[in-house]
Design brief:
With about 270 residues, the protein is of the alpha/beta class. It is built from eleven helices and ten strands. Bound molecules: D-glutamic acid.
Length: about 270
């Protein structure tokens, strides 16, 4: 039994896709969420910068005595910082859980990967898939416009701008007739309905944040690290930029106001 909080971080709002599922699976756990909104997006940055930012994000969560860290960011999961090797608490990224789910789901072994430029450049998803399905046919596609659209709240299913850009990104995947698409950046499941509408019901969409949440639950249960509290757990959200815009988009996505539970921090102090 362990009553310490679970720590979740992302460059911004995308990690809320993991948060939502962690909260649903483990309602009694306390959760500390950090969104590095002053430095989002990470996906266009160099691997060294991503690792440096991620190390600060991790140090911030550790300062809150978390019992496990969920790297709810595909870009960091594909560019893991060395600090993880010295960590005294367990962690999971989103990449491996998403890859395992995709390999289970595909029937044709034709898999699309939507992710940030830094993630696609790392080839980390491809390497992990080929470990499980060496003969898979993969279609990786960087989608640099999705994160700014999501961060700015262009997330409704009928949003004309997001639909137009998504159609462009999805064309090579549709042409290759993939039957499974990994939403390899945790921002993308925020627009999952819109993407699903464009690719049709026969294509399975893998939500990397959700898969990481499932993996977190299994790990904590297996290691006897779940809380023994019976009352609902608390959630606190920290961001490195203004709370207002984060809370506004979070409200649409989570369907509730998180304003009172959100605070600003200076990530450069970590
Ligand atoms: N949500 C993140 C990811 O999963 C980060 C996107 C970004 O900051 O570019 O990759």
């Amino acid at each position: 039994m362990d009553n310490r909080p679970i720590g979740i971080f992302d460059s911004g709002i995308g990690g809320l896709t993991a948060f939502k599922k962690v909260r649903q699976l483990m309602p009694n756990e306390n959760i500390i969420y950090f969104g590095d909104t002053s430095r989002v997006p990470y996906g266009g940055r160099s691997s060294d910068t991503i690792k440096q930012y991620a190390a600060q994000d991790i140090r911030f969560l550790l300062s809150h005595q978390v019992k496990m860290i969920v790297i709810a960011c595909g870009t960091v999961s594909a560019n893991l910082p060395p600090i993880l090797q010295q960590l005294s608490v367990p962690y999971t990224g989103v990449l491996q859980p998403a890859v395992e789910a995709a390999c289970r789901a595909t029937k044709t072994r034709r898999i699309g990967i939507l992710a940030t430029a830094a993630t696609i450049r790392s080839c980390a998803y491809e390497k992990a898939i080929f470990e499980i399905l060496p003969d898979a046919m993969l279609v990786p596609k960087a989608c640099p416009m999705f994160v700014p659209l999501v961060e700015n709240g262009y997330i409704q299913k009928d949003c004309t701008v997001t639909r137009m850009i998504a159609e462009e990104y999805l064309t090579p995947l549709k042409e290759a007739e993939v039957d499974t698409i990994i939403l390899g950046c945790t921002h993308y499941p925020v627009i999952k309905e819109l993407i699903g509408d464009l690719v049709g019901p026969d294509v399975t969409l893998i939500d990397s944040g959700k898969e990481a949440a499932r993996c977190t639950q299994s790990y904590l249960e297996e290691k006897g690290l779940r809380t023994h509290r019976t009352e609902p757990g608390a959630s606190h959200f920290f961001v490195s930029d203004t709370v207002d815009s984060f809370a506004a988009t979070a409200r649409i996505f989570l369907g509730r106001d998180i304003g009172r539970d959100a605070s600003h921090i200076d990530i450069n102090q970590y």
